[in-house]
């Protein structure tokens, strides 16, 4: 099955969050292997998907999805990060791709979803070149069957949580220079891989974008909103679409860490290599308040009890079980902006919520309904939306937050590994069929 004109209705996962079997078939170590969740859990078993993948493909088919966004574990294909190729790893994903295609499910393949080989470090420029080699290996192995590629998942989160907050592997805290260096190397890696792609599918990057709203009409809050938008969104979007790094944010970085001398001649051209689409992961808006003098950035994100009228909303705000405010219109705003400001064709590559109810997850149904409506609104405003992938197919290892935070359309009993479709999964099926 090749790409048609149909919209992709997908479910999303990532390798480390579901696979387990960290020692199987010659896999090398990743930086996440020994980075436990707050509760001390690891991805050693996760959803045991590496062994149960056939059943999981059946599940995806049972949900009626026609797309599956998953990631390839770099350390399975190149156990040392580069050089020697582990065939068993290559063959594993080849079989997965075939099984999906047999069921009419389009693979949407992410090359890097955080499980970096333990031999590598994103602070090193060389890692971007190792990534391009790894990408080439994947293109050679799977391009004949894969139409949708994503290079890097959420570069902002990799730098922010890995090097500023120390919450994600490699767990470094407070290193602003490392953060911005890593952002650059991730974008460079994306550009290098995009330049080498010769297939007839589409390649893009998955950014977690946050629509920004000022907490009040106070000019300081409005300015903080603009500044934070440069930090979270435009630091990635602008260079990807050929505009270089936004000046204001660049100046703010230089004030703290000195010259950004890791940006070499030609890098911005590479980063702006033309892509076929933009992946957007949407979870939450950022409502910004100025906090003059705060380090490293003079602002904070607030969770408003209600939306300021300038954002067009006055109703009360409901949150997911993880405390994330639910604001479907933010997704419409993001999609419209990607289209209007950057001319992007977009795919919603992640969107989902934490709810603990094992099977009768009414709130997830509402969440899904309202966000799909938000996508429809964007389509109505002329945005070219290629698809929507819900996060996640099934409950899984939610990084630092471990197994307690359940995002799945399918419930996983971690004692027995039994999968059960939740009410939201049934609802999604009806929605797709309709
Ligand atoms: C995103 C990640 C994904 C998952 C969801 C909940 O930031 O890409 O792996 O953790 O959040």
Question: Would you summarize the structure shown here?
Answer:
With 434 residues, this protein is of the alpha/beta class. The protein is 39% helix and 15% strand.
Structural account:
With 434 residues, the chain is of the alpha/beta class. It has a single domain (8-433), classed as Glycosidases (TIM Barrel, Alpha-Beta Barrel). 39% of the residues lie in helices and 15% in strands. It has 13 helices and 13 strands. The protein has helices at residues 15-18, 49-62, 74-77, 87-102, 126-142, 155-164, 176-196, 219-240, 247-257, 267-271, 329-342, 362-380, 423-433, and strands at 8-12, 67-71, 106-112, 148-153, 202-208, 212-214, 278-281, 286-290, 299-302, 346-350, 385-391, 410-413, 418-421. The strands form 3 sheets. An 8-stranded parallel β-barrel has the order 1-2-3-4-5-7-10-11, surrounded by 7 helices. Strands 6-8-9 form a 3-stranded mixed sheet. The longest helix has 22 residues, at 219-240. Mean pLDDT is 95; it is low at 308-314. Bound molecules: beta-D-fucopyranose (FCB). Beta-D-fucopyranose (FCB) is lined by residues 14, 17, 153-154, 157, 208, 281, 350, 391, 398-399, 407.
């Amino acid at each position: 099955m090749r790409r048609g004109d149909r919209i992709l209705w997908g479910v999303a996962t990532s390798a480390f969050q579901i696979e387990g079997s960290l020692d199987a078939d010659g896999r090398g170590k990743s930086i996440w292997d020994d980075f436990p969740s707050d509760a001390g859990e690891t991805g050693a078993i996760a959803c045991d998907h590496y062994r149960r993948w056939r059943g999981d493909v059946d599940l995806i088919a049972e949900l009626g999805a026609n797309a599956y966004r998953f990631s390839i574990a770099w350390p399975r294909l190149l156990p040392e990060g580069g050089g020697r190729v582990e065939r068993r790893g290559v063959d594993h994903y080849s079989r997965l791709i075939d099984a999906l295609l047999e069921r009419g499910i389009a693979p949407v393949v992410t090359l890097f979803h955080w499980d970096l080989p333990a031999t590598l470090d994103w602070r090193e420029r060389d890692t971007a070149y190792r990534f391009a080699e790894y990408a080439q290996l994947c293109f050679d192995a799977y391009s004949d069957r894969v139409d949708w590629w994503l290079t890097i998942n959420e570069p902002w989160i990799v730098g922010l949580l890995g090097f500023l907050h120390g919450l994600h592997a490699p767990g470094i805290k407070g290193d602003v220079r490392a953060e911005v260096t890593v952002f650059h190397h991730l974008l460079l890696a994306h550009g290098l891989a995009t330049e080498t792609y010769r297939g007839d599918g589409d390649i893009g990057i998955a950014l977690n974008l946050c629509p920004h709203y000022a907490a009040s009409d106070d000019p300081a809050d409005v300015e903080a909103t603009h500044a934070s938008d440069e930090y979270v969104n435009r630091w990635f979007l602008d260079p990807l679409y050929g505009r270089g790094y936004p000046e204001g944010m660049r100046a703010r970085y230089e004030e703290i860490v000195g010259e950004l001398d890791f940006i070499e001649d030609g890098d911005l051209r590479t980063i702006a290599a033309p892509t076929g689409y933009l992946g957007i992961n949407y979870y939450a808006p950022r409502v910004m308040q100025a906090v003059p003098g705060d380090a490293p950035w003079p602002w904070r994100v607030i969770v408003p009890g209600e939306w300021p009228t300038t954002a067009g909303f006055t109703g009360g705000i409901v949150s997911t079980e993880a405390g994330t405010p639910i604001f479907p219109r933010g997704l419409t705003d993001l999609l419209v902006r990607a289209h209007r400001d950057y001319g992007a064709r977009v795919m919603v590559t992640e969107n989902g919520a934490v709810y603990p109810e094992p099977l009768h997850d009414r709130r997830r149904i509402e969440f899904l309904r309202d966000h799909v409506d938000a996508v429809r609104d964007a389509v109505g405003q002329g945005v070219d939306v290629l698809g929507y992938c819900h996060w996640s197919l099934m409950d899984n290892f939610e990084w630092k937050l471990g197994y307690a935070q359940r995002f799945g359309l399918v419930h996983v009993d971690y004692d027995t590994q039994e999968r059960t479709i939740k009410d939201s999964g049934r609802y999604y099926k009806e929605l797709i069929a309709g």
